[in-house]
Amino acid sequence: MTNSALLVMDIQRGIVGRFPENVTADYLTRVGTAIDAARATGTPVVHVVIGFRAGHPEVSTRNKAFGAVAGSAAFVEGDASADIHPALTPQPGDVVVTKKRVSAFAGSDLDMVLRGAGATHLVLAGIATSGVVLSTLRQAADLDFGLTVLSDGCLDGDAEVHRVLTEKVFPRQADVVTVDEWVKAGAERQAG
């Protein structure tokens, strides 16, 4: 798995808080399992977060996704909404990349970090399936990365959209597996 990197995207307090606690508790446990497995196999863990400067100078009012946060403290460094959820706190050796738009590559140095690590294959987990995961998958495919999506390592506010993406759309450009399947495959590669 050393040519892979696990991208854990937008799992921040301000985003996780939009979902019921009974949903997020199991979800965070699953993503934590994927992170632990990545670390155990030497796979780089990259936490990707959305973040802006105070006053949101990067955000145009024409941007439907982010225009509503302009002028607030949302997702500004130092505001609790921008913090990575404490259940998935980065550890020494993890990398944190800040992006400015939906895709993990938009307005970030993610491509440089991945190339520096020698990563040619990305494993994607994050919130939301229809947001950061979809946008990052599309851009990563165009950049010729191999891709795996952890279907239950992704979360979306619309269960049907999540299902269609993970069952019908993502398989065109990525392998789609569960966290348990990915962990088991990594353990078998380590033992083999």
Mean pLDDT: 94
Number of strands: 6
- End-to-end Cα distance, whole Å, is 12 Å
Structurally, the number of domains stands at 1
**What's the name of the CATH homologous superfamily?**
Isochorismatase-like
Would you kindly provide a written description of the structure presented here, covering whatever features stand out?
It is globular and about 55 Å long. It is an alpha/beta fold and 192 residues long. It starts with a strand and ends with a helix. It has a single domain, classed as Rossmann fold. The protein has six helices and six strands; from the N terminus they run βααββαβαβαβα. The protein has a six-stranded parallel sheet with strand order 3-2-1-4-5-6, with helices on both faces. Residues 4-181 form the Isochorismatase-like domain. It comes from Streptomyces xanthochromogenes.
Notable features of this structure?
192 residues; alpha/beta; Rossmann fold; 6 helices
Write the layout of secondary structure elements.
Layout: E1 4-9, H1 13-16, H2 21-40, E2 45-50, E3 95-99, H3 110-117, E4 121-127, H4 129-142, E5 146-155, H5 159-169, E6 175-177, H6 179-191
Parallel strand pairs: 1-2, 1-4, 2-3, 4-5, 5-6
